[in-house]
Amino acid sequence: MKSNFSIILTFLLAACNSSNSDFQLCSSEKYPYYYPTLYYEGDFYEIKKHFYDNYKNIQSDKSTGIVRIQFQVNCSGEAGNYKIATYSLDYEYETINQKIIDQLLRLTKGLKNWIPAIDDDGESIDSHKFLAFKVADGRLIDILPK
Amino acid sequence: MIKSKEKKKKRKKRILIFFLSLFLLITILGVIFNQVVYMLLFYFGYSQVYNGNNERGNQIMSFAISKMENPSAEIYHALSVQNTKNGNYNIAMSALEKAYEMDPDEAGAYYGWVLLYYYHDYEKSLEILNKYDDSTPGFSDWPMGECIHYLKGLAYMQLHKYEIAIQEFNTSIDNASKEHGEGWVDYQVYLNKGICLFNLKMHEEAIVVFNKAIKSNDKSSEAYYYKGLALLKLDLKDKDTACHNLNKAYILIKQGYKSSDTYVELFSEIYEQQVEQSILENCKN
User: Residues B106-150: pLDDT tens digits?
Assistant: First the structure.
């Protein structure tokens, strides 16, 4: 009986939504990030160029690991609702130097040329995406997944 | 007026009865078929993460798993897939480790493959792929529909161990040729073997292999691009041919002939800007 109440409670929790700041999604409907596809002007080439050209190495403690940034892009191509997690290279939660995180977040927010995904009816829709940055000794060594 | 009030009362009563019945039904079903309910709940959470509601979806899936009597390797595998696709690496990897412990044969194929393409964790990918390959001696496996020797070749290539990578690509080519004929060898295997030769500065050999890639797929912008770069390294007399290949690559990309994947960047993926840059640097009159 207790577990059934837990199930109902879980469903109720599922009905709640969370968002932040001034960023607004166009609809409450969501799609998986890969279909319909969200594009960036100039493709992943420009995303990589943006980070590798502008990232400054930071020599400090806790400067090796993965910084993952999830975000949403609305139907107008504006990005927001950034969520950060940091991992070790063994994929466990690990603290990474805040300056590295701040720099990568600032650069991610600097990606301004998102091309919103288009649904089967030809309408621009909201999308979600993530970028994961591998950092070794404060150097940016890889960007995943694309 | 009184009639209308009574009507409203009756409607409220009916709605109340409906929800109480629904609650009762869920409770009864939950008691009788609780494992089925937890399974349904798990896949409800799965669909939440699929649509980017990560925290909520993972809370639901984690709750459902905690209530399952014997969560299977498949369940942990599914939990891992959705979290990999959304960058929740800690959840994805710990779930995949569990699936791998429970069913190494089934989960091993995906594990080695996903470490290669989605995590760029080449050392660990090779460790898992080698174990998987060794478990079926004398048989060439195809994890996730790709030749295991091709996958191992890619991992070695990314680690800059080009000689070993070439050996793996050769095994992949030999196996496919023996089984179905040379025409069945995927052009991507030739392409990546050619890139390894190029990186070893074996430009003439690389060109031979890029030609095989082009024979297998004459719309491969990547093969023309790398062939063009290899020709540039050979001799200035070949500059025109090199530029012809680079231009061919550029035209093909403009026409949409470019290898790519929905989720990840391919290791030999090229971009329009990159080809354009090579043409500007090398083919100015």
Answer: 899 999 999 999 999 999 999 999 999 998 887 888 999 999 999
pLDDT category at B179 given cuts 50, 70, 90 is confident
The structural domain count of chain A equals: 1
What is the residue range of B54's domain? 33-102
Q: Which residues of A touch B120 (CB under 8 A)?
A: 134, 142, 144
pLDDT (0 to 100) of residue A6: 54
Q: Which of B90, B91, B97, B111 to mutate to test the interface with A (most CBs of A within 10 A)?
A: B90
Assess B245–A contact: CB distance below 8 Å, yes or no. no
Measured between alpha carbons, how far is residue B247 from residues A72, B228, B242, B253, B285 in Å? 37, 9, 9, 10, 14
Chain A CB contacts of B67 under 8 Å are: 3
How far is B132 from chain A, CA to nearest CA, in Å? 21
Residues in B 72-111 with any Cβ partner in A closer than 8 A? 85-90, 92-94
**Predicted pLDDT of residue B12:** 84
**Surface-to-core class of residue B4, CB atoms within 10 Å of its CB (0-12 exposed, 13-18 middle, 19+ buried):** exposed
The ipTM (two decimal places) reads 0.87
> B165 — phi, psi (to 5°)?
-60, -45
- Last residue within a domain, chosen from B102, B126, B144: B102
The tens digit of pLDDT for each residue in A22-35 reads 899 998 777 777 78
Question: Which whole-number Å values give the CA distances from B271 to A42, B22, B49, B214, B258, in the listed order?
Answer: 9, 56, 31, 18, 8
In a domain, B129, yes or no: no
Q: Of B102, B119, B139, which residue is a domain's last?
A: B102
**pLDDT score at B174:** 95
- Give the count of domains, chain B: 2
